[in-house]
Amino acid sequence: MKKIFLLTLLTPLLFDSCNSDECTVDIEEPLCETQDLEIDELSKFSYLEYIVVDDLPMIDHSDSYRWEWKISNDTIEIAGDIGSGGEGSLTAHMFFKKNIDNCIDLLFTRKVAFDDGGVIFDSDTGEIIEHGFTWFEFNDLDFTIQEYIEDEVLIGRIGGVDFWMEFTPDTHRLIPYDYEQYL
Question: Which residue has the higher pLDDT, 135 or 109?
Answer without folding.
Answer: 109
